[in-house]
């Protein structure tokens, strides 16, 4: 993926690169009953926020973060250098070598496609292993124009039923789901807004374009914060 250096500079400064809070990780690991000396992969780990939470709630596990962006991995390494049960590396999300008891992926399966990503990860799961991933979804019923505007760059986005059908088509059984609206998004966009403000003074034309794009995204989200959502899905191969 070829992203402008200005984009990477902005997003590498963030605590996380998409919506989410530690409670999402705690819910998933608790719902799956995970404990003990497991092997866990955080796919698309960004700057390592969820790696830190996974390491804290699964202290006997080995957490391995993978991200395609070296700038994010470098930031994650700095952040996690004092956490003994975590390692991070630059790598291809579609080429994992397991076996993993859990593959966690917050908002990153999008880059592979849900069906393609789940099929690629299947062989990297240990027997009984599970995948937990979050993905953008449309609200049920009539979709407000503000929501359509927010997701306009993702023409293939679907609703909950459509997403779960993709999980089934990939050969997985759904264990449980959790809607992520409002608070996980506010946590992300509040931090993004602070970094936009910090980088504005003296920004180059290229950086200003990136900052303006991020600000437009935040403004679109604020038009419908209760209806713009990720769905966190827990699934196992059938």
From TrEMBL:
Signal peptide start and end residues = none
Task: Answer whether the UniProt record assigns the keyword Methyltransferase to this protein.
Answer: yes
Q: Which SUPFAM superfamilies match?
A: S-adenosyl-L-methionine-dependent methyltransferases
List keywords of the entry alphabetically: Methyltransferase, Transferase
Q: Name one GO molecular function term.
A: methyltransferase activity
The organism's place on the tree of life at top rank: Bacteria
The name on file for this protein is: Methyltransferase type 12
Which organism's genome codes for this protein?
Answer: Salipiger mucosus DSM 16094
Q: What is the lineage of its organism?
A: Bacteria, Pseudomonadati, Pseudomonadota, Alphaproteobacteria, Rhodobacterales
